[in-house]
What we know:
The protein has helices spanning 28-32, 150-154; strands spanning 4-10, 20-21, 41-44, 48-53, 59-66, 74-80, 85-95, 98-105, 112-123, 139-148. By secondary structure, the chain is mainly beta. It has a single domain, classed as Immunoglobulins (Immunoglobulin-like). The strands form two sheets. It has a five-stranded mixed beta sheet with strand order 1-6-9-10-4. Strands 2, 3, 5, 7 and 8 form a five-stranded mixed beta sheet that branches. The termini are far apart.
Amino acid sequence: MVSRFKFLTSSLLASVFVLSGCGGGGDDAHSANGNPEGTWLSFSPPVLRQQQYEGESLPMVVTGTSRRTFSAPFNIRIVDGGGLITTQVGLTTLSDLSYQATLWSNPGLSVGLHQSQLQIHLCEDDPSICAVPFPGSPWHLPLSIEVKPLSQARAVPGLSSD
């Protein structure tokens, strides 16, 4: 299976390193993926879950919180091996140690449950190469999207596009 790469390039002019994830904290063991060098970064929620109807593309928000600062700017590379998200990604700075990323689900997903692991790479160099990764990179963020038939949406008052 060919991996789809999502690139976000964020140059921080300040000397702090921040990454955004989704709304809340994750535990160190989960966020570090068994890598002791990666415990300084956590994601909230620790698992992205989404329910949608066929043809929809909905936002999913994740917050990344760092307990460490770096003097170098960073670049982010998100690898989605399952094709569950689009290339549209928004990144917002919440604080010196916290960022929020908004990812959009793939509107072309078929009915059923789709699961994948997003790989989050933090790099000092070009994110397409990532020859100089930050300690602990990459992190893995589980993603689960349940796609329901469009006919179920039409049965819900107010959701019909007819």
